[in-house]
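Field guide to reading this record: the first block holds the primary sequence, the second block holds the structure written as discrete tokens, and the final block holds curator observations. Each block starts with its own label. This record concerns Phosphatidylinositol phosphate synthase, catalogued under organism Streptomyces venezuelae.

BLOCK 1 — SEQUENCE
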Amino acid sequence: MLNKYARAFFTRVLTPFAAFLLRRGVSPDAVTLIGTAGVVAGALVFFPRGEFFWGTITITAFVFSDLVDGNMARQAGVSSRWGAFLDSTLDRVADAAIFGGLALWYAGGGDNNALCAVAIFCLASGQVVSYTKARGESIGLPVAVNGLIERAERLVISLVAAGLSGLQTFGVPSWIGVLLPVALWVVAVGSLVTLIQRVVTVRREAAEADAVASDGADGSGTSASSAGSSENGAV
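BLOCK 2 — STRUCTURE
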């Protein structure tokens, strides 16, 4: 849902900045690489130390590169399969760094094995959710469902909660720290639901496609048999 509405809004907002970078000779691929490096650094430097506020600020500053690089490619007329592949691949790297950083915190200073496991599940399920759609489309299925929680929702829920939890550093009451654990559980459950939705959809679409292919093969076989009978009759 956020992909549908928020992406269109931020694309319009960031268009002038994308044009500025193009005029300075910056390539879309460079923006993709720099953005991913910034997200990874923010997640793995700050989150494992429990510095959620500054980690979130750093990640947020770089995460918009995911919109800027595509905007630049469209403006420059250089959209390519390679660019799409690189962008999608590095998105997975960035996501893994965010949830990996949270898992490291709970495995260390956060001292909560249950939440460490939840963060790892968020990491893994997010990767698999993305894979199901990509794999389904690669075998010719439309995968006509987005699901309950997509990448945008996973990031927004997790980063907003992490940033607010980090406000404890500035004297905000400690109860606000409960937002991050709640957010991780929400993302975990939502990702599981989304995974099930996509798997069920792919199963249905695969069955329909196989049925159509089978009907086509049967029809071709019948036509061939009929043609053979006509030829035999003519002889």
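BLOCK 3 — OBSERVATIONS
Confidence is low (pLDDT under 50) at residues 229-235.
The CA atoms of residues 210 and 216 lie 10 Å apart.
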